[in-house]
Amino acid sequence: MLKTSKSRYTPEQLNVRLRFIVGLVLAGCLAFALAMMIYGLLFVYQGSELTAVDAEFFKLLSPVVMFLTGTLSGVMIATGSKRDTDGDGIPDSEETQ
Asked: Which partner for 13 in 9, 48, 65, 72 could form a disulfide, CB atoms 3.0-4.6 Å apart?
């Protein structure tokens, strides 16, 4: 049996890694959506006024961008669970000695 010298990650470390990866993915989706919206507005010729298809596209994309922004801020603001080393269900910072 092959043993490795690496220890397992603690739940706090896994939570931080998960939040980091989710944050990166959501930030990438948000950046991509915003870049495509700006590209569509600036570099695609639309004539004298916005076409009906483009207007519906922007109506559809706006709530998606707002959802991604809210989700990203929620993931970044969320606090991890408090540490409970003895496993009694009460966080160590709230226990009385």
From this structure: 9
Question: How far is residue 83's CA from residue 15's CA, in Å, rounded to a whole number?
Answer: 12
Residue with tokens 């919206």: 37
Place 82 in a pLDDT band, splitting at 50, 70 and 90. low
Contact 68, 26 (CB under 8 A): yes
Start-to-end CA span in the chain (Å): 44
Residue 61 burial class via C-beta count within 10 angstroms: exposed 0-12, middle 13-18, buried 19 and up = middle
Residue 4's alpha-carbon distances to 8, 12, 78, in angstroms, are 10, 21, 33
Mean pLDDT of the 36-41 span: 80
Phi, psi for residue 60 in degrees, rounded to 5: -75, -40
Q: What is the DSSP letter of 49?
A: S
Rounded to an integer, what distance in angstroms lies between the CA atom of residue 40 and that of residue 48?
Answer: 15
